[in-house]
Design goal:
CATH class: Alpha Beta
Pfam families: AhpC-TSA
InterPro entries: AhpC/TSA, PRX-like1, Thioredoxin-like_sf, Thioredoxin_domain
Protein name: Redoxin domain-containing protein
Distance between the termini: 16 Å
Largest sheet: 5 strands, mixed
Oligomer: single chain
GO molecular function: antioxidant activity; oxidoreductase activity
Strand content: 15-25%
Low-confidence stretches: none
Mean pLDDT: 95
Number of strands: 10
Length: about 180
């Protein structure tokens, strides 16, 4: 496992469109976008950093969705190197943690590359114009502040994110 942290965000970065066929459905940026903002998450099953937060993440995303934030989780890893991230195990993972959002597989790794994702977890919070307003960590585990949730709720209200954004730390994406 290689520990990575996200770079400083270029706020205002426009969300790249995508279309991924997965599990018999087609998911696109427009199909997952919410009326008040959109959260694009890059996660996986095997990373201990994801495992540490996933239960709370599932709860927090439900609160975001109640405020009009759309959400999608994208698994970007090469499953031939990490079979525990396979589509079958992704479905089990989503069920186990009661995901209320699509968890889809970026088999060609094009979406992760277009967003500049570098680790799991990596969070991209966009406003209703699909302009980046937050790229940072999920929460401060020492203080218990829910930075991602707080930021996305501010975005849902049309406000700028007031808290300083701290980088997300996670496992490197397993590129082909």
């Amino acid at each position: 496992m290689v520990k990575m942290s996200t770079p400083e965000a270029s706020l205002g970065f426009k969300a790249p469109p995508f279309s991924i066929e997965f599990g018999g459905s087609v998911y696109s940026l427009s199909s997952v976008a919410g009326p008040n903002g959109t959260l694009v998450m890059f996660i996986c099953n095997h990373c201990p950093y994801v495992k540490q937060i996933v239960r709370q993440l599932s709860k927090d995303v439900k609160l975001m969705q109640e405020s009009g934030i759309g959400a999608v989780a994208i698994m970007p890893n090469d499953v031939s190197s990490y079979p525990e991230d396979s589509p079958e195990k992704m479905a089990d993972f989503a069920r186990e943690y009661s995901f209320s959002f699509p968890y889809i597989y970026d088999a060609e790794q094009k979406v992760a590359a277009s967003y500049g994702a570098i680790c799991t977890p990596d969070f991209f919070g966009f406003d209703k114009k699909l302009e980046l307003q937050y790229r940072g960590h999920f929460m401060d585990l020492t203080s218990g502040t829910h930075d991602l949730l707080d930021a996305m709720l501010e975005i849902a209200k049309g406000r700028k994110v007031s808290r300083k954004q701290k980088p997300s730390i996670g496992c490197s994406i397993k590129w082909k």
